[in-house]
Amino acid sequence: MIKVTGYAAKHSFSRLKKYEFEREDAKAHEVEIEVLYCGVCHSDIHQVKNEWHNTVYPCVPGHEIVGRVTKVGPAVRKHAVGDLVGVGCMIDSCGQCEACASGDQNYCMAPNSWLATYNGPMQPKSKVGENIYGRDNTFGGYSNMLVVKEDFVLKIPAQLKPEVAAPILCAGVTTYSPLKHWGVKAGDKVGIIGMGGLGHMAAKIAKAMGAEVTMFTRTREKIEEANKLGFDAVIEDDKQALKDLEASFDFMLSTVPEKHDINNYVQLLKRNAALVLVGALEPMAPVDNMQVAFKRRTVAGSLIGNLAETQEVLDFCAEHNIGPEIEIIRMQDINDAYNKVEKGDVRFRYVIDMASLKEEMGE
Amino acid sequence: MIKVTGYAAKHSFSRLKKYEFEREDAKAHEVEIEVLYCGVCHSDIHQVKNEWHNTVYPCVPGHEIVGRVTKVGPAVRKHAVGDLVGVGCMIDSCGQCEACASGDQNYCMAPNSWLATYNGPMQPKSKVGENIYGRDNTFGGYSNMLVVKEDFVLKIPAQLKPEVAAPILCAGVTTYSPLKHWGVKAGDKVGIIGMGGLGHMAAKIAKAMGAEVTMFTRTREKIEEANKLGFDAVIEDDKQALKDLEASFDFMLSTVPEKHDINNYVQLLKRNAALVLVGALEPMAPVDNMQVAFKRRTVAGSLIGNLAETQEVLDFCAEHNIGPEIEIIRMQDINDAYNKVEKGDVRFRYVIDMASLKEEMGE
């Protein structure tokens, strides 16, 4: 067993604090990783606060993890000690179902679906009455060490700084996957709704794909920031701007992490175009099917991305020299960081420097 | 001018009754048609009652029209006197926009969009400030004569009875178009929600395409009727049946003509599969994006079909020897028929025999 130090929430109403636990040693196909950086995702907050009504406590969040391989199991072929690697939202899937067979582990159809990097299987034993992974909880990247199956460990390209690479493992692939799946291409007009961690990554990726990008935000101060990053930007309640943009977008992506009204955005889609929601995993405001049907529009959802897409987006960001705008924080600042994320005060992704944990470990 | 007798509503709260009006004589590219049969569509009732808040009165409904050509303009090439022909929901479109250029007149992007067979342009002058068609109202097939541009007149195949062909012009194409657009093919499992005029046609067409069809209805008595027609059928609130069907459908089509909760049906879709709404043109109940995103599902809308698809579905029904289940009524019975449609008492489509109008014309 490996002694591990992390930060955990004990209840939905408690602040995160130091938590010591053990991880099993790396098995034949597993890799032991020293965590260097871990991004702070809005879903960490949803999960800690039990806003999806499925949190298992203690909860050690973190699924935007970059670290260095410190040990490998005897059967590991893909990674070596010293490699800079990443771990995203998943650490296992059934490997047998039609989704896994076609490479879409993120849509694993096994009773428990995939095994999340933290909080255990996506469908817990309490809901589906079995647990193919034998673990009801898993502990994520807000910790100094991680042990993960080699297939679920990604390679961090040398051109990417490790702290910049971290958010690509969730915010990056969650937006890259639908942009790719719905065929966004050079010359397309793409709208990105919400300008947080996911939204600003989506915009950078879409632009690198050759699309013309417009961001929609509720925060007036972000207009200038969007322009600085090279994007058009519109305030969500600017009625004239919305009218001028009617039926003009080839694709739109909503990254807003909570229930919101998408009707204004549906009207901005061209005929046959899609609006895909990746932020809000909950009941949405009612959608007017008059607007949807009259241009054969589509409203869809998408969930992170598969392993191949995760490696692709890391390589894509390296190749196009793009990455998230980040602010490094210490592990001890996490509760304050959560408050700022909820207020929309972050520009644009907090990344925890795990070296800060060492002082609490007596090193 | 041609003297025409029809049935009209004068207000949103009035019953339909005899109404005499004039139509202009057929111009160079127009065809004059003696109406033989006209189907009764649920949207006739929505329109008569001003439930879409855009009805122009007097309102002469009817857009499932079969008749015989009685006169042709000098430039008409496609039709001849004596031909059995059909007219559906549209009688004109701009012909210039990208949608029209690609053959999708039903998504015409001109300011007024397409010209509806009754009630005038889809976007009235009062809304968009111009009217390319020069007509603020049009009178539909609840009348003895019609004059229509030849391009918007379809050919009724000889194998189809005229009264059976009539509902194919709206109920048929409205369901055929999305089944075709979303690529339904032999072996697919298709769910049809609602078992009225549209729903039962959708089921017949999907089955003729080689799909395995399950109908969902709120009316217990329709289960047996669905089975008789060769379809599986499930009551909408049969929780066990819905659970057993989870994630099993390649495609679903909702034909329910009013706001309804589709969350139970979204859960029945396979990964990457679509639920398309063609019945309800209004704000829907909230959809849980958790269910949508977790299998990258799609919710979309579709509006009737284009001219080519309308001819295709007529030919397809003739070839596969299918058609709607109809009940012939007299024009004078229309108000009673509306009541029955609203109660779901019709099995499955009323078709008006226009010969019944003659007695009111003193013939």
From TrEMBL, chains A, B:
Domain of life: Bacteria
Enoyl reductase (ER) domain ranges (all copies): 11-304
PROSITE patterns reported for this sequence: ADH_ZINC (PS00059), D_2_HYDROXYACID_DH_1 (PS00065)
Keywords annotated in UniProt: Metal-binding, Oxidoreductase, Zinc
Coiled coil: none
Cofactor(s) it depends on: Zn(2+)
Alphabetical list of InterPro entries matching this protein: ADH-like_C, ADH-like_N, ADH_Zn_CS, CAD-like, D-isomer_DH_CS1, ER, GroES-like_sf, NAD(P)-bd_dom_sf
Presence of keyword Cell membrane: no
Short name of any one Pfam family annotated for the protein: ADH_zinc_N
Gene3D superfamilies assigned to the protein according to its UniProt record, in alphabetical order: Medium-chain alcohol dehydrogenases, catalytic domain, NAD(P)-binding Rossmann-like Domain
Family in the record: Belongs to the zinc-containing alcohol dehydrogenase family.
Name listed for the protein in its UniProt record: NAD(P)-dependent alcohol dehydrogenase
Annotated source species: Massilia norwichensis
